[in-house]
Amino acid sequence: MSYFYPKKIKLTDINANDAITFGIPRSGTTLFWNIIKDVLNTYNVNVIKTHTFEEKFKENKCFIIVRDIRDALISQFRVYVNDSSEPKLITLEEFLKYENEFDNHFKHLIPFLQTNQHYVFKYEEFIHNHNKLYNQLEMLYDISIPINVRTFISNKYKENNVKNIIKNISTIDEKENSVFEKMYDKHTEFHAMHIFNSSGKSMYDKYMEPKLVEYINYKYNDYLKQFSYLN
């Protein structure tokens, strides 16, 4: 599974006032980060997006977005394995080829959940309504986010507007030496394969063979129960 990231984090540049946003790949982390960034940058708070845990983050406020791991896996395969605009059926045999790489990202969630200041949001709820996030930011930073500001930021990252950002990536100057400049929008870090499931509805039953669903349900049972993804 060939993961790609826009930027490497310099730990020496992080201070205790920075806000950290985390999610396993394909959990809505970039959308989540952009909204938090657009709010907090106004108050001179730096917001960092990451898919990995670092000990230094224990000092920071950590905003975590979680998603049904089965749907995140389908999206990861679409982007990093199949390089496709549409999901494809995943078999247990195929998943096992990439299981270690998937686990290498999943393992970073646990230490984030053990930090003193962590705040968890579910993708399936967040994708429809950002007000819980805005309310949390108001409380934590003692700020007020007016309705018109909330509306402006949320509209900025609606699906069609994100598609327009993605469409413009291909117009980036090919003379640039940086891979980041060619693959990503440098302001939002959306890349050409960023198509998010705006319905928030689960799709794993359509794109996972039953044996794989059974395997995932068993292996990640604690996670799925903790965040109410299993009945």
Question: Your description of this structure?
Answer:
The protein is an alpha/beta fold and 231 residues long. The protein has one domain: P-loop containing nucleotide triphosphate hydrolases (Rossmann fold, 3-Layer(aba) Sandwich). It has twelve helices and four strands; from the N terminus they run βαββαααβαααααααα. It has helices at residues 29-40, 69-81, 92-106, 109-113, 123-126, 131-141, 147-156, 159-167, 179-183, 204-207, 210-219, 221-226, and strands at 19-22, 47-50, 61-66, 118-122. It has a four-stranded parallel beta sheet with strand order 2-1-3-4. It is globular and about 50 Å long. The model is unreliable at 1-6 and 171-181 (pLDDT under 50).
Summarize the entry for a quick read.
With 231 residues, the protein is of the alpha/beta class.
Instruction: Tell me the major beta sheet.
Output: 4 strands, parallel
CATH class: Alpha Beta
Gross morphology is globular
Put simply, the count of helices is 12
Name the assembly state: single chain
* Series of secondary-structure elements, N-terminal to C-terminal: EHEEHHHEHHHHHHHH
Strand order of the largest sheet: 2-1-3-4
Q: DSSP strand (E) fraction?
A: 5-15%
How many domains?
Answer: 1
Mean pLDDT: 83
**Would you identify the CATH architecture?**
3-Layer(aba) Sandwich
CATH homology group: P-loop containing nucleotide triphosphate hydrolases
Query: Which regions have little confidence, pLDDT < 50, spanning 5+ residues?
Result: 1-6, 171-181
> What would you call the structural class?
alpha/beta
The first-to-last residue Cα distance is 30 Å
